[in-house]
């Protein structure tokens, strides 16, 4: 009976959304076009000029049986393959992870201000990275970069601690999870400050990492987090229908055979894994998870089966464009990427807050 009900509801949700539902593939196409255009622009922008046509020709030259020859010099090819492409791909990955995690958090908590750093991920990652920078030198004896590993472990530790605290002390309600996240974040931030003060000479390195950026990432960092990012994205994209059911209310979801507590656990875990993966390779970059899902929700409609994949694409495009601004506005110097996203995100956050309060009246 439940299966029939779920099938009927799925059909109703699909057909009842009208034109917005029909526009889902359109926005997916727009997201893909925006991501491709941003990546092409990000690869071509910089001190060493690379024309978009030359970049496309170089990429096609690696495909067999096409017979396309590269027009780049060895120096231009090194810039493309070792500097520009890893940075742009990393930006697409980090932006997509943060945006999709933000959309998932907003769906789980039914709160438009929910953020990927909500449950202690940022503070845990900051503490892990700070410990390695201050006491570990940043790399293991075998050359493995420890900062991304420590940030990843710290982010997961912060989220798991907040979730367990919210479950045991507050019964697992959304309000208790949010409060637990605030408490854990405050504690971990205090611990990070204590570690920083013990080694004043390392403050610059710590704050450079905390302000976020893509300039230090490479192919090794991408391969490091790619498996975790792939699992997180797969779970988040597959949870869109369940998040749409949760939006109807827990009682309605239970009557349809859905277990809200289990859905929240799975989605929160996947969103936190996505956040930890992003933070590990980029530092702390705020507001992406608030700005992008809200824009996507207004453009593509309220259904999470559309919001999640479209946010993934537009999030990558958004962060690549922000990174272009970070490395060109004050060239030859470079702005921290977190500063650029904050300049965009902070006013947007205020607008969302005002709109939320107006709807609540």
Automatic annotation (TrEMBL):
What is the name of this protein? Answer: Iron ABC transporter permease
Family as reported in the entry's similarity comment: Belongs to the binding-protein-dependent transport system permease family. FecCD subfamily.
Asked if the record carries the keyword Heme, the reply is no
Q: Where are the transmembrane segments?
A: 26-51, 88-105, 117-137, 144-165, 177-195, 222-242, 262-295, 307-329, 335-353
Please name the SUPFAM superfamilies in this protein's record: ABC transporter involved in vitamin B12 uptake, BtuC (SSF81345)
**Superkingdom assignment:** Bacteria
Does Transport show up as a keyword for this record? Answer: yes
* Record's subcellular location: Cell membrane
Keywords attached to this Swiss-Prot or TrEMBL record, sorted alphabetically, are: Cell membrane, Membrane, Transmembrane, Transmembrane helix, Transport
Instruction: Give the source species.
Output: Thermobifida alba
Q: How does it sit in the membrane?
A: Multi-pass membrane protein
């Amino acid at each position: 009976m439940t299966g029939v009900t779920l099938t009927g509801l799925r059909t109703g949700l699909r057909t009842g959304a009208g034109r917005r539902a029909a526009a889902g593939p359109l926005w997916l196409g727009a997201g893909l076009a925006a991501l491709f255009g941003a990546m092409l622009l990000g690869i071509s922008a910089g001190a060493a000029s690379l024309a978009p046509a030359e970049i496309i020709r170089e990429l096609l030259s690696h495909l067999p049986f096409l017979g396309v020859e590269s027009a780049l010099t060895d120096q231009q090819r090194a810039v493309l393959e070792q500097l520009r492409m890893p940075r742009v791909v990393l930006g697409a990955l980090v932006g997509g992870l943060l945006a999709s995690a933000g959309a998932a958090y907003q769906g789980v908590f039914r709160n438009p201000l929910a953020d990927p750093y909500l449950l202690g991920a940022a503070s845990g990652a900051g503490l892990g990275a700070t410990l390695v920078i201050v006491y570990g030198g940043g790399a293991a004896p075998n050359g493995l970069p420890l900062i991304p590993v420590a940030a990843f472990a710290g982010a997961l530790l912060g989220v798991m601690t907040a979730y367990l605290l919210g479950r045991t002390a507050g019964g697992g309600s959304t309000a208790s999870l949010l409060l637990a996240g605030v408490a854990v974040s405050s504690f971990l931030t205090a611990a990070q400050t204590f570690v920083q003060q013990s080694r004043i000479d390392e403050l610059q390195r710590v704050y450079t990492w905390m302000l976020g950026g893509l300039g230090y990432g490479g192919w090794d960092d991408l391969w490091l987090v790619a498996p975790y990012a792939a699992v997180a994205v797969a779970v988040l994209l597959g949870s869109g229908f369940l998040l749409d059911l949760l939006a109807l209310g827990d009682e309605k979801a239970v009557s349809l055979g859905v277990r809200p507590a289990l859905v929240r656990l799975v989605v929160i875990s996947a969103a936190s894994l996505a956040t930890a993966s992003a933070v590990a390779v980029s530092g702390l970059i705020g507001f992406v998870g608030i700005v992008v899902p809200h824009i996507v929700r207004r453009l593509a409609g309220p259904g999470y089966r559309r919001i999640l994949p479209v946010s993934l694409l537009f999030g990558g495009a958004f962060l690549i464009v922000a990174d272009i601004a970070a490395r060109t506005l004050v060239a030859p110097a470079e702005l921290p990427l977190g500063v650029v996203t904050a300049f965009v995100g902070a006013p947007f956050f205020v607008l969302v807050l005002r709109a939320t309060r107006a709807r609540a009246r």
